Every structure is written in structure tokens, then in C-alpha cells.
Automatic annotation (TrEMBL):
This is LRR receptor-like serine/threonine-protein kinase GSO1. The keyword DNA-binding does not apply. GO terms for molecular function: receptor serine/threonine kinase binding. Pfam families: LRR_1, LRR_14, LRRNT_2. Keywords: Glycoprotein, Leucine-rich repeat, Membrane, Repeat, Signal, Transmembrane, Transmembrane helix. It comes from the Eukaryota. The chain crosses the membrane at residues 874-897. One of its GO terms (cellular component) is membrane. It comes from Acer negundo. It is found in: Membrane. PANTHER family: LEUCINE-RICH REPEAT-CONTAINING N-TERMINAL PLANT-TYPE DOMAIN-CONTAINING PROTEIN, LRR RECEPTOR-LIKE SERINE/THREONINE-PROTEIN KINASE-RELATED. Residues 30-67 form the Leucine-rich repeat-containing N-terminal plant-type domain. The keyword Glycoprotein applies.
């Protein structure tokens, strides 16, 4: 390293020595000595300085211009020479230099202050390099300087006030740097200044009133800075001004009327400021004006500018203001030169302004985002030069006039978000230059005309959100340049035309939310540029074509809510996938591990299918994965530890599968997790305490598993949690008091577990609880905490099937949002809050001592309880009744038997009984109910024995009824 430095110094010494010798002999000027020194500090990759040699005359060196007597260097021009390195201070030795041009190179470092010694310098051009630092104040010594261009560098700091000393300056350009501070007042000293370009810096403060001192100024550009305050009226004194560009600052106040005195002004740009008030009608006096842009301000009032007076006006941009009213009636004349009229995003109203139809020179017409209404006139065809018709986001109605087909130069037709009805006229097919047609969010109907496919220049079609019906035209394949086809949310039916595959430039295809059927055509393999395809909410069916694997540029796929079946492998050919949604189909088989090759995959949704197998361990490579939904499938196995590498996972939905094993602690390492749903699986073991590390978790659903153990107290760390569902597990222990820290909970479900202890009063601090608090079917004991009365937003409360005791706290009566309540099957007692009368009896059953509406009043319950016998007494009475009934039954049986024996004796002794008496006896026995006289038979004595089926003593029946009544009595 040291040797090379020594060599360089030796070479420099030789060069200097040779130059000194040659100077002595008088062959070249002394300037060659300094130029050779300057050369040593420049890197010259294309060797433009190769002929800078003592052997050649200096006046023949590249970039050098000598004086007429060839004794002095008056110009050094090395512009666009790909030079790098720094600017040498030795340039100050070229005292005769009048022009120094080092622009459009790669120079770095500072601007040497020594340049202030070049007293003869007239042009200093250092723009478009990578120079840094500040402008040296010594530049102010160059009193002959006429052109100073330092723009497009990395220069910063304030503009030195010494600039005001450059009274001969005509061009001063500092654009595209990082200058700050304000525009110096001394700028007004530059009386001969023609061009002042300060745009794209960080300048702030006010525009100095002294600017009027630049009386010859023609071009003043200070756009894209931080200038503030009013536009000084003194600008109106710059009679020579042709260009005034103050766009994208923070200027405020009114547009000064004095601007109307700038009769030579051809370009006025004030967009992107905070100007207010009305547009001065005096601006109509700027008869030389060609371009006027007042957009993105706070201007109000009506449009007062007329192209009839501004005869040279070609572009008028007034968008993004608060202008009202309609376009003036006499806005245009036949000789208007207006080509661009942009009035978007105002508050203009009325029907389509027919006045504009006289502006036959119009090429771009933008009336979007206003409140125009009515129908589009057929006379639109008068705008024969129109290339862009932008009428979106208004209230235009009616149908599209067929005459629009005569706008032969039309390239872009934006009519979306209106109330246009009817069909697309077939005449649209005549627009051979049409590139984009946006009709979305209207009320159009009918079929998509086949003639539209004659517009072979089309690159974008967007008909989203209409009522188009019928099929997609079979000739769609004629649109070879089509990039975007958006037909979502219509009533289209039928198959996807096979010719669509011939639109080989297609990048975005959206056919979702229609009634399309059939399978995907094999020609889809030809759509090699396709990056987005959405087919959801249709009736597509069958397996996917294997050739879809050839589509290597796919990024977004959504085939959800269809009837596709078979394997999803054909969709894994692209390694660029960022979103894949196949929800609600009939796909089967395992998840292909090839999906993990798409390293940018952020959303994967495969829910509601018939997929099987394990979750691929290769998913651990998807470090961008944010949304993983594999719910409602038949996945088995345990959670692969490789998933812990997916640190950006925000949604992990694996519910309703057949997953097994324990919940891994690494779930807590997923710090971006917002939703975790592992419910309805076969997980066992405990709830890992590490889940408390998921600090931004919003929803935790672990219900319907076999989890056991206690709820970890770390659950309280989930301070953002909205939903906690642990119901239908085998959890035990108490609810941790730390749950009070989950202050954003609006749904808490812990039902059907084995939780014990009392309900923690801390639950009353969860004041955002709204959907439900469900602690039912557990083993909770103790009293209901009165703090639950603070849950004023709660809509459902279920504490049923526990062992709760004591009274229902009166504070619960404050829960006016409650529309679902269940306190049944506990040991509660006492008066219910009066507001609970709106709930049904089922809400309170199984609490024997509760009273008050809708139950018995407390006085009725008290009286009933006074009459109520003790359990011992009830048992004694039942035993006595049973004994007495048995004795009575035996006595009755004995009496009946005695009667029957006596009757048999009588029957035997009187065998010649009369036939009439027998007939009456048979009628009774076989149930004949009436005599010949129509009277019912009556039993007048106990002489007749009942049939065998009728021998149930009345005392036995009484016994059963009494027993039932006794049982019912115990439920009161």
C-alpha cells in the first residue's frame, strides 16, 4: 500500500516537473500544469482525458476551449463524461476560466470554496452529480456569473445570502436538492434574473415580497417545498413572467387578483396547496395562458373561468376542491383550443353540461366524483377528438347512447359507480382504439355483446357489480391484449369459453359471484402471464386440469365456495403464491408439500373440504404466513414443531379436525397471533402457560377437546383478548383472578368443565363483556358476586347447573342489556330482582327457595312453606297410607270372596232361573248398556262381582294419587 502511494507521488512529481519545464520553454500556458493536477483527482473510466498530455497542445485537449490568442483556457466542459471523484480546489488557478461545466457526472464531495476566486467565471454548471455539503458563501464573489446550476445533487443547508451579490445572474437553478431554510430576501437584488428554479427541496417560510425586484424573471418554479403563507401580491409586478409553478407547498389565503396582471403568463400551477376562497374571474385576462392547474386546494364558489376568453388555454385542471354549481353556459366556443378539462372531485351538479360539446378539441374530459345526474346525451359524438371520457362516481342514469360508438379516438371509458341501466350498445364494437372500459357498480343488464370482442385494443374490462346475464362471449379469445377481465358479481351463467385461454396477456381474471358452471377449460394452461384468478361463489365442479401446474406466475388464487374435487396439486406449480383460498369445496387427499416452495405465501385457506393426512412439516418454511385456516377437514396427527418458525402467523384456525396430542408450548412464541382456534379436536393435557406470551391475541378458542388441569394464571397477560372459549373440556380448579386483566373480553365461555370454588368477584371488572358470560355446568359454589352487576353491556348470563347458594344480588337487576338468563339448578334463595320478571320460569327452575316474578311471590311461597310438612313427617304419612290401603284391600277382598261363595250357593240351589233374568245378567257382563226402554243399566247392590280386569280397589287408586301428590309437593 505504501509503495503504491510512493509511486503515485513520484509520477505526480514527474508530471509536474515536465509541465514546469515545458512552461519554461513557453510551449503551453501555465494552465496545463493545473489541469494535469486536476486530472489526477478524477476517475476516468471511459478515458475521455487520455489526450490530456504535455505532448499535446492544451487547446486540443478534450473539453478545453482556449481564448482567441490560444494563450488562456476560457472553458472547461466535461459534461456527461462519466467522471467520478471530487472537484479539485486547483480549478481556482484557471483564472481566465469563463465556463466550468462538470454536469451529468458522478462527482462527489464538496463544492470547493476556492471557486470564488474565478473572477471571470460566467457559467458554473455542476448539476446532476452527487455533490454534498453546502453552497460556499464565496460563490457570491463571482460578480460576473450569469448561469449557476447546482441542481440534482445532495446539497443541503440554506441558500447563502451572498447570492444577492450576483447581480449579473440570469439563470439560478437549485432544483432536486435538500436545501432548507427560506428563500433569501436578497434574491430581489437579481434584477437580470430570467429563470429561478428552486423546486423539490425542503425550503420553508414565506415567499419574499422582494421577489418583485427580479423584474426580468420569466420562469419562477418553487414547487414541492414547504413554503407557507400567502402568495405575495408583488408577484403581479413580474410583467415578463411566463411560468409560475408553486405546486405542492402549504400556501394559504386567497389567489391574489394581481396575478391577472401577468399578461405573458402561459403556465400557472398552484396545485396541492391550502388556497381558499373563489377563483378570481380576473384570471380570464391571462389571454396567453395555456395551462392552469388549481387542483387540490380548498377553493369554493362557482367556476368563473371561460375558455371563450382564455383563447389559448389547452389544459384546465380544477379537481379536488369544493367548487359548486354547474359549468357556465358560454364556457366553450367553436374555436376553443381546450384539450384537457379536469373537474374531478368537486361538488358540481346538474345534468351533463351540453356546453362542453362545443369544445370539439377536447381530448380528456374528467367530471368524476361530482353529483352530475341525468342521461348521457347522444350528441357526445360531437367530441370526435376525445380519448378519455371519465364520468365515474356521479349519478348519471339512463342507458348508454349508441352514438358513443362514433367516438373513434376513444381509448379510456370510465363510467363506473353511476346508475346507468340497460344494455351495452353493440355499437361499442366500433371503438377500435378502446383500451379500457370500466362500467362497474352500475345497474346494467342484458348480455355482454359479442361485438365488444371486436375492440381488439382492449387491455382492461371491468363490469363488476352489475346484472349482466347470459354467457361470456365465445369470441373473448380475440382480445389478445387483454390484461384485466373483471366480471365479478353479475348473473353470468354457462361455461368458461375455451377461447379465453388465447388471451395470453391476461394477468387478472375475476369471475367470482356468478352462476357459472362446468369445469375449467384445458386452454387455461396457455395463460402463462396470469397472476390473479378468483372464481369463488360459482358452481364449478370436477377435478382441476393437471395442466394448471404450468402457470408459474400465479400469486393469488381463490376458488372457494364451488364444487371442485380431487387433489389440489395442480395449483402448486407456481412458487410465487401469496394467497390461496379453496374454502368450501370437495377437495380430498393430503396437502402437497410443494406449497411450501412459495416462500411469500401469506394466506392459506383450505377449510371445509375433505383433506386428510398430517399438516406438512414443510410449512415451517413459510416465514411470511399470516393466515392459516385448515378447519373442518379430516387432518390427523400432532402439531408439527416446525410451525413455530412461522413467526408472522396472525390467524391459526385448525378447529374441527382429528388432531391429537398436547398443545405445544411453542404456540406462545407466535407473537403476532391474533386468532387461535384449535377447538373440536382430540387434544389433551393442560392449557400451556406460554399462551400468555401471545400479547396481542384477540380470540382463543379451545373448546370441545379433552384438556385438563387448571386454567393458567398467565391467561391474564392476554390484555387484548376479546373472546375466550374453553367450554366442554375437563378443566378443573378455580378461575384465576388474573382474568380481570383481560379488560377487553366481550365473550367468555367456560361451561361444561369441572371448575370449582366460588365465582371470582374480579369478573365484575370485565365491563366490556357483551355477548355472553357462560359458567354453566361446573362445580362452582358460594354466592353470586354482586360485582357482576357492573357488566352493564352483558346480553346473556348462564350460571346454571352449579352449586351456587344465597340470594341473587340486587345489583344484577341493573343489567338492562340482558336478554338471556339461566340460573337454574342451583341452591339459590330469596327475592329475585324485579327486572327479572321478563324471563321465563325455565331460567330459575331447580332453586326451591327463590321467589318473586316470574316465580311465586315471596308471601305465597312463605305460606306454602308453612303448610309444608317436614321430610320425616311426609315419609311417616306415606308409610301409614300404604299400610292402611293394604289392610283395606285385604278386607275388601275377603268380603268379595264371601259374597261370591254365598252367590254360588244360591245359584246352585236355584238352577231354574228365569230366562229374562239371565239375559239382563249377560247384558251387564258383556257391556250392553240399555234396556228395551232405553234406560241404562244400574247396579243396585254389591251382589254382582266385577270382572277380573276391573278388580282395582278404589283405596289402591287413592294410594297412587297420594304418592304422586307427595312427590310433586317436594318440588314446590
Amino acid at each position: 500500500m505504501g509503495g503504491s502511494i510512493q509511486t503515485s507521488r513520484f509520477v505526480l512529481f514527474l508530471v509536474t516537473l515536465v509541465a514546469a519545464i515545458t512552461v519554461t520553454f513557453g510551449d503551453i500556458s501555465t494552465d496545463s500544469f493545473w489541469l494535469l493536477r486536476i486530472k489526477q483527482e478524477l476517475v476516468d473510466p471511459v478515458q475521455v482525458l487520455d489526450n490530456w498530455s504535455p505532448r499535446a497542445n492544451i487547446c486540443n485537449w478534450h473539453g478545453i476551449t482556449c481564448s482567441d490568442d490560444r494563450k488562456q483556457v476560457v472553458s472547461l466542459n466535461l459534461s456527461s463524461s462519466e467522471l467520478s471523484g471530487s472537484i479539485s480546489p486547483d480549478l481556482s488557478q484557471l483564472t481566465s476560466l469563463q465556463t466550468l461545466d462538470l454536469s451529468l457526472n458522478f462527482l462527489t464531495g464538496l463544492i470547493p470554496s476556492d471557486l470564488g476566486q474565478l473572477q471571470n467565471l460566467r457559467s458554473l454548471l455542476l448539476y446532476s452529480n452527487s455533490l454534498s455539503g453546502k453552497i460556499p458563501p464565496e460563490i457570491g464573489f463571482l460578480n460576473k456569473l450569469q448561469v449557476l446550476r447546482l441542481g440534482n445533487n445532495l446539497l443541503h443547508g440554506e441558500i447563502p445570502t451572498s447570492i444577492g451579490n450576483l447581480t449579473a445572474l440570469r439563470v439560478f437553478r437549485l432544483a432536486y436538492c435538500q436545501f432548507n431554510g427560506s428563500i433569501p430576501v436578497e434574491i430581489g437584488n437579481l434584477k437580470h434574473l430570467i429563470s429561478l428554479d428552486l423546486q423539490q427541496n425542503l425550503l420553508g417560510g414565506y415567499i419574499p415580497e422582494a421577489i418583485h425586484g427580479c423584474k426580468e424573471l420569466q420562469n419562477f418554479a418553487a414547487a414541492n417545498n414547504n413554503l407557507e403563507g400567502d402568495i405575495p401580491s408583488s408577484i403581479g409586478l413580474l410583467k415578463s413572467l411566463q411560468v409560475l409553478n408553486m405546486a405542492n407547498n402549504s400556501l394559504s389565503g386567497l389567489i391574489p387578483i394581481q396575478l391577472s396582471h401577468l399578461f405573458n403568463l402561459s403556465y400557472l400551477n398552484l396545485l396541492g396547496n391550502r388556497l381558499s376562497g373563489e377563483i378570481p374571474p380576473e384570471l380570464n385576462q391571462l389571454v396567453q395562458l395555456e395551462m392552469l392547474d388549481l387542483s387540490k386546494n380548498n377553493l369554493s364558489g362557482t367556476i368563473s373561468l371561460l375558455s371563450t376568453q382564455l383563447k389559448n388555454l389547452e389544459a384546465l385542471v380544477l379537481s379536488d376542491n369544493a367548487l359548486t354549481g354547474s359549468i357556465p353556459i358560454n364556457f366553450c366556443l367553436d374555436n376553443s383550443k381546450l384539450q384537457q378539462l379536469i373537474l374531478a372531485r368537486n361538488k358540481l351538479s346538474g345534468e351533463f353540461p351540453l356546453e362542453l360539446l362545443r369544445c370539439s378539441s377536447l381530448q380528456q374530459l374528467d367530471l368524476s366524483d361530482n353529483t352530475f345526474s341525468g342521461e348521457l346525451p347522444p350528441s357526445l359524438e360531437n367530441l370526435e377528438n376525445l380519448t378519455d371520457l371519465v364520468l365515474n362516481n356521479n349519478s348519471f342514469s339512463g342507458s348508454l347512447p349508441p352514438e358513443m360508438g362514433n367516438l373513434s379516438n376513444l381509448e379510456n371509458l370510465y363510467l363506473f359507480d353511476n346508475m346507468i341501466r340497460g344494455r351495452i350498445p353493440v355499437e361499442i364494437g366500433k371503438l377500435q382504439r378502446l383500451s379500457a372500459i370500466y362500467l362497474y357498480d352500475n345497474q346494467m343488464s342484458g348480455s355482454i355483446p359479442r361485438e365488444l370482442t371486436n375492440c381488439t385494443s382492449l387491455t382492461a374490462i371491468d363490469f363488476f357489480g352489475n346484472h349482466f346475464s347470459g354467457s361470456i362471449p365465445e369470441t373473448i379469445g380475440k382480445l389478445k391484449n387483454l390484461v384485466v377481465l373483471q366480471l365479478r358479481q353479475n348473473d353470468l351463467s354457462g361455461l368458461i369459453p375455451a377461447s379465453l385461454g388465447y388471451c395470453r396477456s391476461l394477468q387478472s381474471l375475476a369471475l367470482a359471484d356468478n352462476k357459472l358452471t362446468g369445469s375449467l377449460p384445458p386452454t387455461f394452461r396457455l395463460l402463462s402471464e396470469l397472476s390473479t384468478i378468483t372464481l369463488y361463489n360459482n358452481s364449478f365442479e370436477g377435478p382441476l386440469p393437471a395442466s394448471l401446474f404450468l402457470l408459474k406466475n400465479l400469486k393469488i388464487i381463490n376458488f372457494s365456495h364451488n364444487r371442485f374435487s380431487g387433489t389440489i396439486f395442480p395449483l402448486t406449480g407456481s412458487n410465487s403464491l401469496s394467497a390461496l383460498d379453496l374454502t368450501n369445496n370437495s377437495f380430498s387427499g393430503p396437502i402437497p408439500s410443494e406449497l411450501a416452495m412459495s416462500r411469500n405465501l401469506s394466506r392459506l385457506r383450505l377449510a371445509y373440504n375433505h383433506l386428510t393426512g398430517n399438516i406438512p412439516s414443510e410449512f415451517g418454511q413459510l416465514i411470511e404466513l399470516n393466515f392459516l385456516d385448515l378447519s373442518f377437514n379430516n387432518f390427523t396427527g400432532e402439531l408439527e414443531p416446525e410451525l413455530s418458525k412461522c413467526k408472522k402467523l396472525g390467524h391459526l384456525l385448525l378447529n374441527n379436525n382429528q388432531l391429537i396430542g398436547t398443545l405445544p408450548p411453542w404456540l406462545g412464541s407466535l407473537q403476532e397471533m391474533g386468532e387461535l382456534d384449535l377447538s373440536s379436536n382430540n387434544f389433551h393435557g393442560t392449557v400451556p402457560a406460554e399462551l400468555g406470551d401471545c400479547s396481542i391475541l384477540l380470540k382463543l378458542s379451545l373448546q370441545d377437546n379433552n384438556l385438563s388441569g387448571e386454567i393458567p394464571p398467565e391467561i391474564g397477560n392476554l390484555t387484548s383478548l376479546n373472546v375466550l372459549n374453553l367450554q366442554r373440556n375437563n378443566l378443573s380448579g378455580q378461575i384465576p383472578s388474573t382474568i380481570q386483566q383481560c379488560k377487553k373480553l366481550y365473550e367468555l365461555r367456560l361451561a361444561e368443565n369441572f371448575l370449582t370454588g366460588s365465582i371470582p368477584s374480579e369478573l365484575g371488572k370485565l365491563t366490556e363483556l357483551q355477548v355472553i358470560l357462560d359458567l354453566s355446568t361446573n362445580l362452582f359454589s358460594g354466592e353470586i358476586p354482586s360485582s357482576l352487576g357492573s357488566l352493564l353491556k352483558l346480553e346473556r348470563l348462564n350460571l346454571s347447573n352449579n352449586k351456587l347458594q344465597g340470594e341473587v344480588p340486587p345489583s344484577l337487576g341493573k343489567l338492562t342489556s340482558l336478554h338471556g338468563l339461566n340460573l337454574s339448578n342451583n341452591h339459590l334463595q330469596g327475592q329475585l330482582p324485579s327486572t327479572f320478571s321478563v324471563f321465563t320460569l325455565n331460567s330459575f327452575l331447580g332453586n326451591a327457595k327463590l321467589c318473586g316474578p316470574p316465580l311465586l311471590s315471596c308471601s305465597e311461597l312463605e305460606g306454602h312453606q308453612e303448610r309444608k310438612l317436614s321430610n320425616t313427617e311426609v315419609v311417616g304419612i306415606i308409610v301409614a297410607i300404604v299400610f292402611t290401603s293394604t289392610v283395606i284391600c285385604l278386607v275388601m277382598l275377603y268380603i268379595m270372596l264371601r259374597i261370591w261363595i254365598n252367590w254360588r250357593r244360591v245359584s246352585i240351589s236355584t238352577s231354574d232361573i228365569g230366562s229374562e233374568q239371565k239375559r239382563e245378567e249377560e247384558k251387564w257382563v258383556y257391556g250392553e248398556g240399555k234396556t228395551k226402554n232405553g234406560e241404562y243399566w244400574r247396579v243396585k247392590s254389591m251382589a254382582l262381582a266385577p270382572s277380573q280386569d276391573e278388580q282395582i280397589p278404589s283405596s289402591c287408586i287413592f294410594h297412587l294419587k297420594l304418592d304422586n301428590e307427595a312427590k310433586d309437593n317436594t318440588l314446590v
